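Agenda item 2: flavin-adenine dinucleotide complex prediction
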Amino acid sequence: MSEKDPILIVGGGPTGVVLAIELSRRQVPFKIIDSKDRPVPTSRAFTIHAKTLEIFEQLGIVEKYLNTGIKNYGFAFTFEGLSEKPALDFRILRCRYPYILNYSQNETERLLREHLTATYGVDIEWGNRLTGLETDENGTVTATITNQQTQEEEVFKPSYIVGADGVHSYVRKSLNLPFEGEAYEGMIMQMMDTEVEGYEEDPQWTQYFMKENNFLLTTMLPNGKCRLLVSDQGESADRKKNTRRDAFQQVMDEHGVSGTISEPEWTTQWVIWKRLADIYSKGKVFLCGDSAHVHSPSGGQGMNSCIQDAWNLGWKLAMAWRGEAKAELLDTYGDERKPVAQQVIDGTDHMHDIIMAHGKGMEERMALTQSDGWQIEVTERIAGISYTYFGINKLPDGLETLEGGPRIGDRAPDVDYPDFRTLFGYLRSPEFSMILMPASDAEAAKAVDLLNEASGAFGTTVKSFIVSKQPLDAVTCENTILDPEDQTTEKYGRGNEGRIYLIRPDGYVAFKCSFSQFDKLVEFFGYWFNE
Ligand SMILES: Cc1cc2nc3c(=O)[nH]c(=O)nc-3n(C[C@H](O)[C@H](O)[C@H](O)COP(=O)(O)OP(=O)(O)OC[C@H]3O[C@@H](n4cnc5c(N)ncnc54)[C@H](O)[C@@H]3O)c2cc1C
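Presented output:
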């Protein structure tokens, strides 16, 4: 094995494909296999949340989703017998995508695969199963791949291997990595995609109807079908008594939801688990997506957090493969993503207590929606925009704390400029971006000096920009963010001195300091990157 051998991605679901795109963007060779003979055709995840849409924007494909998805305002809750109807209204989100985009997972995956193939000429190798995985004391990984049609075996020594192979992950099991957790006892989730004739609920809201011993979710899919989700203690799953269609119709009628269910397009049922991998990587082996975490579907965050895992890992793996990054950078993947998965589990537990706490009274469950700040806290978390890596990574001693703007580890917010450009547009580079924000015109020359110094210190790993009210003679247009109305400081703060933000390729703040602390930035860079 050498660092220059290709990477192996096991699994061609949303996690594997986003990771493949991230490696392709950085010209890192890899192989992506999937044991199935073709993509999964069923709808599964219907929610694309704001942070995932920001990722799609950075990949240049968000319009395709926005053109055909349904912009859903959020979740409306009806508790049996209570007149008050709380809601999680995603229109309050402070970001470009203040809604949930209803989109079927098979279509989400299709657009991602098409992007991978059309832009980078890469296809998933379908019908190829990982059937053997060994690592030796030197960290060398040996993978055996079996072609499902011919049963021919290929032995492959990848530089790194990523288990994006779902909840029953072969990769995780091969390494005996613990995946602890528990089932939500005594309940069965059932789902159906179907036409509902005479459905009168507002299609721009996902409706949750709660009774003491069951709940019903209804929402519209872009193909005109209705997604119905029922949870109870198994009554409506009892096929001896009912056809699935009759059972769903009965639950709808009980909740007073109008409409007649047609022949279902797809039905499925499952028991809900929450589980979290103990560690996200071991040597050159990584877990990503459902292979590392699984939780209640409340809030629809599964696929979204999987994509966000791949978004976190992709650039790190690419930089390590290229020999630019130290092992410490790869360690940050699990350090950062495992706590997020734990927060997703805690958050879905909270939603679960509102929606599916079967046996508990309506008043008690409704009370959970009444605490101060509930709306903003829960919507930002479900949307994925408030997750932060703040406080996780090592910082240089003596670094001053700058007030205002995102903290180190926070998601960097977007800014709209009068020329219709956006900050995210400037940050679309697959590398790091450094934003220099002089506090006064007099500091512009200092910003130009720092930009030149950064180019010497960081080479092509960092693309630098100076935020300026007017064009700067010494800096090419490409490196100037024209901000005549000073909008960047509104989001990123202002001090007496100019400030520098280093933004990671995944859109989080890597580092923040004043102009005079540029040496701390260089020191910080040394923690993760080779000279
Ligand atoms: C009914 C249902 C509804 C859901 N609703 C939502 C929702 O509304 N919102 C949301 O965000 N999430 C939702 N989810 C969760 C979402 O579907 C998953 O979180 C997501 O698919 C996980 O993506 P993944 O790529 O990590 O794994 P998967 O999608 O499971 O993909 C893993 C791939 O690995 C392949 N594979 C497995 N073993 C091997 C092997 N040994 N060799 C080669 N390939 C292998 C599999 O064939 C598979 O294609 C839902 C899930 C279900 C089942």
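Discussion summary: DSSP finds 14 helices and 29 strands in the chain.
Owner for follow-up: CH.
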